[in-house]
Write a structure and sequence with these properties.
1% of the residues lie in helices and 46% in strands. With 338 residues, the chain is mainly β. The chain has three domains: 6-142, Immunoglobulins (Immunoglobulin-like); 149-240, Immunoglobulins (Immunoglobulin-like); 255-336, Immunoglobulins (Immunoglobulin-like, Sandwich), CATH 2.60.40.10. Strands 6, 7, 9, 10, 11, 12, 13, 14, 15, 16 and 17 form an eleven-stranded mixed β-sheet that branches. A hairpin with a 6-residue loop joins strand 4 (52-57) and strand 5 (64-71). The longest helix has 4 residues, at 149-152. The two termini are 33 Å apart.
Length: 338
């Protein structure tokens, strides 16, 4: 079953987004499933089109946002066009904002307020003047830089740390389980993106950005999808890549054993941890696969399973230790061998 989505998009690099499982964004390919409901037949004989994609256009420091609604063509041969509806409420209040002909499968909605969630639906019409039922709704919201704390908490970048000469790790959070990625670039167009966390629905995320240029400042924001495909874009943030590789953090009392570790041969012990802090483990793609609050005894035994309860695969993983204030005190690679 294919999943609908809401994707970042850029006016300066306009492209057509296909609805295959591989979509291309400014030359960068990423995978994304789409979900659609079943086709509904109306008494008029038109199939309503239940797959609708909405794309957000970054407008940098402007106080407005633009969204591109994109859909697949309806299969009926006598379709004459489509009507686009918008609302501030998912379940009610939809009003027609424009219509397009049967050869047009996208609509750009411009000059909308940041900090407001907009919902879109679609109907098709035919040569007899009959109209289909509504498609499923999709929505998106762009958080402004001056948003209130409660609004910013909808999707916010919580940490930025340089992990190598040309790499950075971006941490971000949402109040409900989401999946998503980081958009970034050395200008405000943000036409690069991190890997897409398609399988890990969680409230805490961490993405590794590679091949960055030293002595450059980058813009970044998080794009989060909830399980109903509502997109929330965080406020834009910045980070600068230093020309010096940061010294590794050290906690001499920290012990991790056994290393290498096999999840099928018992647990891996992490001892000497800061009380009331947290341990987070990431795979080589920058995806968080484990997180645990550190108890007062300062010891955690990990059984080698990820957030979904499955044993992790062989490879290099990264243990990140945070103190009770959320500051990173240790970064340690560990080898998993099954």
């Amino acid at each position: 079953m294919r999943k609908i989505g809401f994707f970042p998009f850029f006016l300066s690099k306009f492209i057509i987004i296909s609805l295959s499982l591989i979509s291309k964004l400014s030359g960068l390919t990423f995978n994304r499933d789409f979900r659609s409901g079943k086709m509904e037949k109306t008494t008029a004989g038109i199939c309503t089109f239940l797959l609708l994609i909405v794309l957000s256009i970054n407008v940098s420091a402007q106080e407005t946002a633009d969204y591109l609604v994109n859909w697949e063509p309806n299969p009926e041969p006598d379709i004459t066009g489509y009507v686009i509806y918008r609302s501030l409420d998912r379940g009610a209040g939809f009003s027609a904002i424009d219509s397009v002909d049967n050869n047009t499968f996208e609509y750009l909605d411009e000059g909308l307020e940041k900090g407001t969630r907009y919902y879109y639906r679609l109907i098709a019409k035919n040569t007899s003047g009959e109209r289909s039922g509504f498609s499923n709704p999709v929505s998106g919201m762009t958080i402004p830089a001056d948003a209130s704390p409660s609004l910013s908490d909808s999707c916010k970048i919580t940490g930025k740390s340089q992990t190598g000469l040309s790499s950075f790790r971006i941490n971000w959070e949402t109040p409900v389980p989401t999946t998503g990625f980081i958009q970034y670039d050395s200008d405000a167009v943000l036409d690069s993106m991190s890997s897409f966390d398609e399988t890990d629905w969680t409230t805490s995320h961490s993405n590794q950005l590679e091949n960055l240029e030293v002595r450059k400042t980058y813009y970044a924001r998080a794009a989060a999808y909830d399980q109903y495909d509502n997109l929330t874009l965080s406020a834009q943030d910045t980070f600068t890549v230093s020309e010096e590789v940061p010294a590794p953090l050290s906690s001499p009392q920290l012990s991790i054993y056994p290393v290498p570790y096999s999840p099928f041969k018992g647990s891996m012990t992490m001892d000497g941890l800061p009380s009331n802090g947290a341990v987070r483990i990431f795979n080589s793609n920058g995806m968080e696969i484990y997180k645990e609050t550190i108890p007062a005894v300062g010891e955690i035994n990990w059984d080698g399973t990820n957030h979904n309860g499955s044993k992790v695969m062989s490879g290099v993983y990264y243990v990140i230790v945070e103190d009770s204030g959320g500051e990173v005190t240790e970064k340690r690679p560990v080898m998993i061998v099954n």
